[in-house]
Amino acid sequence: MKGRVLVVDDDLALAEMLGIVLRGEGFEPSFVHDGDKALEAFRETRPDLVLLDLMLPGIDGIDVCRQIRAEAGVPIVMLTAKSDTVDVVLGLESGADDYIVKPFKPKELVARVRARLRRTDDPTPELLQIGDIAIDVAGHSVKRGDRHIPLTPLEFDLLVALARKPRQVFTREVLLEQVWGYRHAADTRLVNVHVQRLRAKIEKDPEHPEIVVTVRGVGYKAGPA
Amino acid sequence: MRIPLKTSARRGLRVIRRLARAALGATHARWRRSIRVRVVTTTLVVSAIVVAVLGVFLMQQITNALLEAKERAALLQLDDGVGIAQGQLATGPSDPETLNNVVTTLARRSGTAGLYEVILIDDRDPGINGFSSNSIKPGSVPTRLRLQVERAPASTPYRTYGRLSYDDGTSAAGLIVGAKVNAYQIYYLFPLTQERQSLVVVQRTLFGVGAALMLLLAAIASLVTRQVVIPVSLAAQSAERLAAGRLEERMKVRGEDDLARLATSFNDMAANLQEKIVQLEELSKVQRQFVSDVSHELRTPLTTIRIAADVLYEAREEFDPLTSRSAELLQSQLERFEGLLTDLLEISRYEAGAATLDAESIDVRELVLRAVGDTEGLAERKGSKIIQQLPGEATMAEVDRRRVERILRNLLVNAVEHGEGKDIVVSVAADRDAVAIAVRDHGCGLRPGEAHLVFDRFWRADPARARTTGGTGLGLSISKEDARLHGGWLQAWGEPDQGSQFRLSLPRVAGAELRGSPLPLVPPEIELRRAPYAELKLEADA
Amino acid sequence: MRRGLALVTLVLFAVTGCAGVPSGSQVVGGRVTGHRQPIDDPYVRVIPVGPGRDWDPGKIITAFQAASGSFDGPNGDHKVAREYLACGGCWQPGISTVVYDRIEQTSVQIGGARASVTVEVDQLGKIGSDGQYIADSHRLKVTYQLRQDAQKQWRISWLPQELLLSRNDVNRAFRTLDLYFFSPDRQVKVLVPNPVFIPMVNRTWLSQQLVKQLLGGPTTWLRGAAVRTGFPGGTQLRRLDISGGVATVDLSRQARSGDLRNMSIQLMWTLRQLREVDQLKLEIEGKPVEVPGAGGTVQSASVWAGYDPDGQGDVPRGWVRTADGRLARLDSSVPQVLLPKLRVSHPAISYDARQVAAVSKSGDTVTVTDMTTGGTRVVLHAKLAGGRFCKPSWDLHGNVWAVESNSRGSRLWEITPGTTKIAVDGWTLAPYPVRALRISRDGTRAAAIVQMGQVSQVQLGRVDPAPTGGLQAEGFIAINSDLSAAVDLTWRDADHLAVIGATDGNPSPLLYDVPVGGGAIQPIMGPGGDMKAVAAYPGAPLLVAQHVASPQPLDNVCWLSDKYGEWKCYDRTSAPAYPG
């Protein structure tokens, strides 16, 4: 359950405070205060999760997010002061798995971090097939034919959640709870953005999805309509 | 037989009336819409009146002049004739032969064109009443003229207009002059055929010229209006485009006349407007940036404080009582401070016009259920029970989930806060175009005039009363803005000791215009107790 | 703005200044377009009135006679005058018209509800139903019967069928117009006028009646002269319309068999007497017909000008006898003697002006001299005891007509060019001495001065083929009752004579224009002397021979200058003559 958490934040006080909380919860935090050095620090520490502030001196948090996502599928949770749609969507689209709006409660933060780290402890061997997509749940791999499709852990969880019960319609709230671990209603935009990202990777034609299908007014389901 | 005739006549009349009304309507519409039609029609009507009046006047003048000339000539001829007759009658005996010769002489003087006819009346001989020239009928001399001439002294001429009839059955208008010579009466009868022809020619000419003049004036009016209206309508088009947001729209400036000045002024105005709008836009951008920055800058330390406070709060049991209480207070006030900050930021977002609607089709009941679920705990603490009156089927509407939830939470919290522990009723209703959610409490209610004030920022019904639920005083104000962003209404009703009701009405389709609400603003049980007339005032207030 | 107003005012003033009549312009020729044809001379009608209340029989008759002078009513049937009658239909005045000079009521007899009024008139002549006037002067007694009607008003119950009209009534109510027919001569087409009296009901009626009478043929009197007409028998007038100078004559289908040229000539010459007619359009059964040689359907008067009854061509010179008995032509101010050896009295020049017929000085021989050769031959000697020839007369064929008279009678001779002489058989004037005889140019009529007792009367006879094969002159009628002492006569044109004579009222001889139709005679102002002889030719000045007593006795021939209306005389000349 312990994990390494890289905190990317320019605010020293907040970083320290986060450090106190995380350590109190048994995580191993490391810190970087500059966007320019974030990638470097990420390569050095190889964290299990990245806490990333969106507003950073040097490279913007969104760019940092892209850089990290380009190297690894490690879970990224964004810290943002901007709850505006545009900023959140921008952050999510750049590769973040989840976000927390400042100010937040320490418990909330810990809950999110835990939720992102939990899946790594769940090695049940299982093979799923959706359309022409084969999913090896234990092996964390998704293939179309022989071709491997790289997915982030969150995208993988989302696909697995849908694929485990094909043809069942999941509302966004249900998905939020199952995939992100939210008890209470949160921002359903998380689901939307990640479904779009998933489709971009696994669908032949993302404009006309065949694997993850939208059910208007309700949510999503796996498999053909 | 009479009745069907009458009915068919009435039906015909009705058809005619309908057609006339339709034509009138079309004409009226054109009349209202086009300056040109108005100006041309007015010119036509006015010039028609002027031409008609002028024509009648001219015709009268010409007729008078012509007839006066004719009369003068006729009297001169008569004078001449009377002189000749007197001469002949003086030298010879006045037997019928002399009279015959007199008439012959006089008739010969009429010339080959038949300028006039002569009648000489002599009723002394039995069987003969005088002589007439050519085929004129003696009856052409009107009796009124004969009586006048008979009574008058000799050689006094009289004249009148009458109808000359001839032996071959024809007749013509004519001027008849007569005078007495000795015991006889001489009448000259002038047919007015030539004058009539002249007058007809003049009349036709007047008609033609009048019509041409009218058309010409109408054409001129049309041309002039065109010259004025086209630039004006171009200006109107430009203004419309400008109003539609195309700030780069400008008018063409041609010449140096008034219209050119209009165009120049318009362009100046447009340029100024564009400049101002660009300025404002930039200002707004700057402000938004500022707000965003402030938000970030404020939030980051707030987060630190918050976490720190939380840590302290978690560890309060290890502190001494004073310190422990301080940690508690710090915790609660931080929450309030955070709420205030959030609301303030929301309001500043509205003011900057940065608020956007993220609409999706949602069952409104679901939102209500969730909001109620969120506030139930608070209500229980205050001793209130939240009663829900929801429709049986899904009530779908295109709304922004976040905003509507926020509105509902605000309303419920507000109701709980002022509900004095009594029941709170949430009802949902929908019709074809709109959904409405009403939140009713039975608390102290609102005093007259307060139904509007409740949406003012930081407004408080009783300044002396303490806030118990830690509301920021901005909730209703934000809710009102949220409702307005949807194109909906948020209205309040309240009476002292009757409680209050807040009604949110939203169009089912985002951006559609809201025409009415499926729920009454005033609760039905109150309405029933009311006098029928008070309703009007309240509706007006709403 | 103010300048604009001033400009408008200025323009307005300029425009109003233009109004008015021009005080000068260029000279423009041409007739007024669209003018109306001049209508005929004005005429005067009496205004008749019906009987007054309680008039006595005498007054009724006087008023009736006055009122019957009016041809009122739609067809000139005396509508007002009929109000005096007890029975409207019992009076048909169309038979003939008695023309009188004086009238007087000689007796009025009233017996209860009946009365009779006797009227005596001095009759001058009669107009027949065909319009032919015959002078017949005598005293006439007429009796009218009257009776009272239910309202005690006298009305005429019986009256003569003739219309009694005074000379003035006739002058006023009738028009004398010529109908034109062709002379019997088949070689030369010559129009013969046939004067008729037509009542002037109104202008339309007059023109229609004129054409109807033309279609009906010549008057009974002229019919004897065997004149020819182009209209087939039974031809009727369907319609006559005169407008814009064009007379449209629509004839019935019978006209199809007639000669269109002849009909057109007759119609044109007859209708052109009406001043409103210039052109003729002939239709048969409503369809316009094209007349050969007339150039289109509308014929102008000039097309048929060649058929002028007065002849055409140059106006001939006049001839006179000089004091020494020689024949001289009036070429200039001095008469030109052409044949110095020839001595003539009463010369008559042939129409071709090559021959001259003359009477010898003694008056008992007629000679004919060829003026080109100068050869004279005696053609005729008097046959009657003490017979004297009056001036001979030529016709168009070169015949010489000569009449010899003594105190008891006369004889007529015709000298045709080939033969020597023919005594004309049918000479109805044989019992009377004849003072003068002139044959008309067309050769169908003869005008004569006949000595009847104390009266020398102007009479008109016709020349027609005699049953024996030759020609005869018969059917002489008096054409005027006024001229009681005629001296000499000549044809002025086809239907007018110039007569020197005296009337009852004026015993000294004057020159008169006498229409052969019997119309009113008009005096012509003479040269002033004692007129002896007269010569005329259509279009040529009138020549009058006179004797002037002072300042010294002188015979001269005077001619009436058209230009100044004055007489100019050739001294020491006499016996004027024109061809004819």
Automatic annotation (TrEMBL), chain A:
Q: Does the keyword Phosphoprotein apply?
A: yes
Q: Which UniProt keywords apply?
A: DNA-binding, Phosphoprotein, Transcription, Transcription regulation, Two-component regulatory system
Q: State the Pfam families in the record.
A: Response_reg, Trans_reg_C
A single Gene Ontology CC term: protein-DNA complex
GO terms of molecular function: phosphorelay response regulator activity; transcription cis-regulatory region binding
Which branch of life, at top level? Bacteria
Q: Which SUPFAM superfamilies match?
A: CheY-like (SSF52172)
Q: Which residues carry this modification: 4-aspartylphosphate?
A: 53
Q: Is Coiled coil tagged as a keyword? A: no
OmpR/PhoB-type domain span: 125-224
Q: What SMART domains does the record tag this protein with?
A: REC, Trans_reg_C
Residue ranges annotated for the Response regulatory domain, each copy included: 4-117
BP terms from Gene Ontology: positive regulation of DNA-templated transcription
Instruction: Give the DNA-binding residues.
Output: 125-224
Q: Which InterPro entries match?
A: CheY-like_superfamily, MtrA_REC, MtrAB_MtrA, OmpR/PhoB-type_DNA-bd, Sig_transdc_resp-reg_receiver, WalR-like, WH-like_DNA-bd_sf
Q: What is this protein called?
A: DNA-binding response regulator MtrA
Q: Which organism is it from?
A: Actinoallomurus iriomotensis
UniProtKB/TrEMBL annotation, chain B:
Q: Which residues form the HAMP domain?
A: 226-278
Which cell locations does it reside in?
Answer: Cell membrane
Q: What class of enzyme is it?
A: transferase
The principal localisation class reads membrane
Histidine kinase domain span: 293-510
SUPFAM superfamilies for this protein = ATPase domain of HSP90 chaperone/DNA topoisomerase II/histidine kinase (SSF55874), HAMP domain-like (SSF158472), Homodimeric domain of signal transducing histidine kinase (SSF47384)
Q: Which domain of life is it from?
A: Bacteria
UniProt keyword Transmembrane helix present:
yes
User: Which reaction is catalysed here?
Assistant: ATP + protein L-histidine = ADP + protein N-phospho-L-histidine
The protein, known as = Sensor histidine kinase MtrB
Supply the source organism for this entry. Actinoallomurus oryzae
- Taxonomic lineage per UniProt? Bacteria, Bacillati, Actinomycetota, Actinomycetes, Streptosporangiales
Automatic annotation (TrEMBL), chain C:
The UniProt record lists the GerMN domain at 207-293
Task: Keyword check for Lipoprotein, yes or no.
Answer: yes
The answer, when asked if Acetylation is one of the entry's keywords, is no
The signal peptide, as residue positions, is 1-19
Q: Which SMART domains match?
A: Germane
Give one Pfam family, short name only.
LpqB_N
Keyword list (alphabetical) reads:
Lipoprotein, Signal
Under which name does UniProt file this protein?
Answer: MtrAB system accessory lipoprotein LpqB
Gene name as annotated: lpqB
